[in-house]
Amino acid sequence: MSRQSNRTTDSKKMNAELFTLTYGALVTQLCKDYENDEEVNKQLDKMGYNIGVRLIEDFLARSSVGRCQDFRETADVIAKVAFKMYLGITPSVTNWSPAGDEFSLILESNPLVDFVELPDNHSSLVYSNLLCGVLRGALEMVQMAVAVKFSQDTLRGDNVTEIRMKFIKRMEENLPAGDE
Amino acid sequence: MLTRLKTQVPLFSMNSYTKLREKLKLSGLSFASTHSHVIRLGRHSRHNSKMAVCIAVIAKENYPLFIRSVPIQNELKFHYTVHTSLDVVEEKISAVGKAMADQRELYLGLLYPTEDYKVYGYVTNSKVKFVIVVDSSNTSLRDNEIRSMFRKLHNSFTDVMCNPFYNPGDTIQSKAFDSIVSAMMVQAS
After folding, report:
1. In sequence order, which ranges of A68-175 are alpha helices (DSSP H)?
2. Is A122 helix (H, G, I), strand (E, B) or coil?
3. Do residues A76 and A93 lie in contact, with contact meaning Cβ atoms separated by under 8 Å?
4. Which Gene3D superfamilies match (chain A) (predicted)?
5. In angstroms, rounded to a whole number, what is the distance separating the alpha carbons of residues A128 and A162?
6. N or C, which end of chain A is more exposed by having fewer CB within 10 Å?
7. Among A114-123, B106-115, B154-163, which stretch is predicted with the lowest mean pLDDT?
8. What is d(CA A20, CA A32) in angstroms, rounded to the nearest whole number?
């Protein structure tokens, strides 16, 4: 199955709205089902993880980037290739820790949160937590264990959305543990 | 232009610019100063002419989703005004026959003038109504400005609808919508 990258920009606008609304419906349904923001965050992370472990295959097939030599290269590939390919945005990589194992992705705009305003009773909801799961799952498939979390969120009143990624360890080559 | 000066001056608070205008008017205007006057006045009045006194959003079941008026103490009167304007809206929607239903324009125009106010209406295809009440003395407000206000309201309302946390039928509590509406309202003097 050859998958040509025929993403043209003309239909992107409509797809983006449908995508945003779909994600919104997903989050609100989860909120109604679980009624607990922490639980919803966990579920979003799990769902993201499941997406990530599959998405990495698609990404590697489409982008044909080779194995990254170090974490810095990984960060650049994530920001410049992966985000661009799937969300159409290019976050910037900043705030490297002195040890070089932690960095931040700064997103000026987040297509998942167009039109969204968090109501007051969901103040601890991490709306875009799916993204954290996706990154974690995808990197786990290339033998990198990372911890991902949101440190700033425009829905909570910050100016930008910031994702903090921390490298934990390189994993042994072993079969994937399967879906959580 | 001078008649516009006459109606503008008593309405709005006397800021320093208005005082200057008064002074110039009394001292006799030269063309140059009139002209620069007119340009600046134009900007000033355009700034004020985009101001409504009350803005309301009514659901298709005819209950208010959002109503905001300035000054706050007359709110009940505006509620009543908007409520009575709904009859006119219904009349205008049903006036066009079934065959012309798709050709009916969203903007309804001036619904009815009272001695103090003019009430404008706009209906979406989902039967959500927007009502704007402006001061009668604000004669400089043109039709296409009202249309653009309604267009902005409609766009803002669509954004509110797209918020996944908003349930259709709830009152509108969006901060973005609030700020759009506040930008269109007269500044409380």
Report:
1. 71-77, 83-87, 129-141
2. helix
3. yes
4. Trafficking protein particle complex subunit 3
5. 11
6. N
7. B106-115
8. 18
* Other Cβ atoms within 10 Å of A143 Cβ, number: 13
Say yes or no to pLDDT of A106 above 90: yes
User: In angstroms, what CA-CA distances link B170 with A177, B161, B165?
Assistant: 45, 10, 10
Task: Provide CB contacts within 8 A for B147, sequence distance 6+.
Answer: B107
Contacts of A157 in chain B (CB under 8 A): none
β partners of residue B68: B55
Sheet holding B107-113, edge to edge: B64-69, B54-58, B129-135, B117-123, B107-113
User: Would an 8 Å CB–CB cutoff place A131 in contact with chain B?
Assistant: no
d(CA B126, CA B76) in angstroms, rounded, equals 27
Closest in B160, B164, B174 to A24, CB measured:
B164
Could you report the predicted ipTM of this complex, rounded to two decimals?
0.76
Which residues face A119 on adjacent strands? none
Beta strands A102-107; A92-94: pairing state: antiparallel
Cβ–Cβ of A116/B164 closer than 8 Å?
yes
Question: Is the C-alpha dihedral spanning B110, B114, B118, B123 positive or negative?
Answer: negative
- Give Cα separations from A169 to A72, A101, A174 (angstroms): 14, 10, 14
DSSP string, B47-99: HHHT-BSEEEEE-TTS-EEEEEESSGGGHHHHHHHHHHHHHHHHHHHHHS-GG
- A64 min Cα distance to partner chain B (Å): 36
Question: At which residue do the structure tokens 């509620």 appear?
Answer: B79
Between residues B9 and A108, the one the model is more confident about: A108
| Whether the predicted pLDDT of B86 surpasses 50 | yes
| Cβ separation B159–A25 shorter than 8 A | no
